[in-house]
Specification:
Elements: E1 3-10, H1 23-33, E2 37-43, H2 55-63, E3 66-75, E4 78-86, E5 90-97, E6 107-114, E7 120-127, H3 132-145, E8 156-161, H4 169-177, E9 179-181, E10 203-207, E11 211-218, H5 222-227, E12 233-239
Parallel strand pairs: 1-2, 7-8
Antiparallel strand pairs: 1-12, 2-4, 3-4, 5-6, 6-7, 8-10, 9-10, 11-12
């Protein structure tokens, strides 16, 4: 496979604007996007046995995707955090701790995905904190996680909810070491939060020079506007031979 699609989506615990928790609705939005690799944030019940309470399993099985979880904390006794779903084989995964002091635990879920027999894509799915000094620490920690990889020939994508309301330290640091994939800025089209009337550009995609960005956009379907308080960002890549 020389081309593939990725998406990042903060699903807000599958709670939509109608306050109803509906993993099937999130799955329906992802079906519209038809991505090969999906990075989700704010996922609840990721180690629950029953599909009814396990949001990532419910979504993955609905779409026929493999998945890995990155637990950052417990909510009601179950794992909460980030998840990576893929229609391609996931060959390895590791959850990196990005927590700072006594703030809410945060993490970066790394997953290795076999694009083809010769190529492995490394994805880094992040959800950073809301505090200014917290994100300063997490920006440097994130660079440590991907240290030495920015110029590696191995394709890599760093994506997720960076919680930067303006262009902050994390954005500047990652932009120095990686390519920033930004949707069209005109008319606020890069904004992803809050979903129904987006004012902020919190969700981002970064990639290294082993990849060529073909297209990036914010997915604004009628269903997506109601399913979460964020809108998904979608990026199409090809391998830069």
């Amino acid at each position: 496979m020389s081309s593939f699609r990725v998406t990042t989506y903060n699903i807000h615990k599958c709670r939509g604007l109608d306050r109803r928790v509906r993993p099937k609705r999130i799955a329906a939005v992802l079906r519209e996007i038809d991505a090969d690799v999906v990075a989700l944030q704010e996922v609840v019940g990721m180690d629950e046995v029953t599909r009814e309470h396990n949001q990532v399993r419910a979504i993955a099985e609905e779409l026929g995707l493999d998945f890995r979880i990155g637990e950052n904390r417990r909510i009601s006794g179950a794992a909460y955090g980030n998840a990576v779903l893929s229609r391609l084989p996931i060959t390895a995964d590791h959850n990196h701790d990005l927590s700072w002091r006594r703030y809410e635990p945060r993490g970066c879920l790394e997953a290795a995905i076999a694009i083809d027999a010769q190529t492995t894509l490394r994805t880094f799915n992040v959800h950073l904190g809301t505090g200014f000094f917290e994100r300063r620490y997490q920006g440097h920690r994130l660079l440590e996680v991907i240290a030495g990889d920015a110029n590696s020939p191995t394709p890599r994508v760093i994506l997720g909810d960076f919680n930067e309301w303006t262009r902050g330290l994390t954005t500047r640091l990652l932009s120095l070491h990686l390519n920033s994939a930004e949707p069209e800025q005109r008319l606020g089209r890069a904004r992803t939060y809050p979903g129904v009337f987006p004012l902020l550009h919190l969700d981002h995609v970064y990639y290294n020079s082993s990849l060529k960005l073909e297209r990036i956009y914010v997915h604004r379907s009628r269903l997506a506007l109601a399913a979460s308080d964020h809108l998904p960002i979608v990026a199409d890549f090809t391998l830069a031979r």
